Here is the input.
Amino acid sequence: MLKRLLITGAAGGLGTVARNRLKHVAEVLRLSDVANLGEAAANEELVPCNLGDRAAVAELVAGCDGILHLGGVSVEDTFDRICEANIVGVYNLYEAARLNGLPRIIFASSNHTIGYYTQDVRLDTEMPMRPDGLYGVSKCFGEAVSSLYHDKFGQETALVRIGSCFPEPRDHRMLSTWLSPDDFVSLVECIFRVPRIGRPIVWGVSDNDATWWDNSGARFLGWRPKDNSEVFRAKLDAAMTPPPADAVDAVYQGGKFVAEPIHQD
Ligand SMILES: NC(=O)c1ccc[n+]([C@@H]2O[C@H](COP(=O)([O-])OP(=O)(O)OC[C@H]3O[C@@H](n4cnc5c(N)ncnc54)[C@H](O)[C@@H]3O)[C@@H](O)[C@H]2O)c1
Here is the structure.
């Protein structure tokens, strides 16, 4: 069991799942965000912090022996907003970790690091990145920083390229990319349980029949996702028409992100 697990982005969608369902992983959960975190429960510390503030991030990380890094801009946005949270913020986090005993990090990376691959390609984790926007580029930057800090300092990071983590798939593309909240929770548990992890890339995806991703490299974690999006296919078919074969969300792994412009203020 960890002594103090830092969860960044704790007010967000996945942060709320982690806050509610990962209490048993650490004696104390240190929860951080720029958004309101509500009231602290018994084993919680609330530490509001902007990831772009280097001194504040150094204090935030001190005393933590694990980090679940979910904080940051989670969709396509302007470069300046992405830069503060996902580029400066990630550098700040890794520097703080280096100066505070190299706590193991789970980095919430994304399928948008590879979004320009077409859906007929089966990907393993060795294939070059093909980001589908500036958000994806920022996640590629995070993966590169984790590589540097692993090679130079031995910093361990599990890079979880999350597909789509919601209670149910919301469209037909998500039949391939869906990660159930239960499988997300069990993945985090496994990553903090394994004695040594190094710096694996893990596809954050459930055991979907329609998957595009080969997760065999992550089997050493002992993680066996239990859910399969196929149980939702009939419900989705009834709720919406699948996209035409030439639509971006039927062609590219990153779906509609491929069609996003470069955002301006
Ligand atoms: N949910 C998914 O399906 C999915 C898919 C791929 C990747 N991810 C990644 O997982 C992480 C969590 O995703 P989510 O869906 O919970 O996103 P979310 O947007 O709900 O939560 C992100 C949180 O980060 C906080 N944040 C933003 N900028 C910040 C800053 N400068 N300093 C501190 N906090 C800041 C936000 O206030 C928010 O609460 C994100 O990094 C996202 O990119 C999620």
About this structure: The CA atoms of residues 190 and 221 lie 6 Å apart. The pocket of nicotinamide-adenine-dinucleotide is lined by residues 9, 11-15, 33-35, 50-52, 70-74, 84-85, 89, 108, 110, 162, 164-165 (CB under 6 Å).
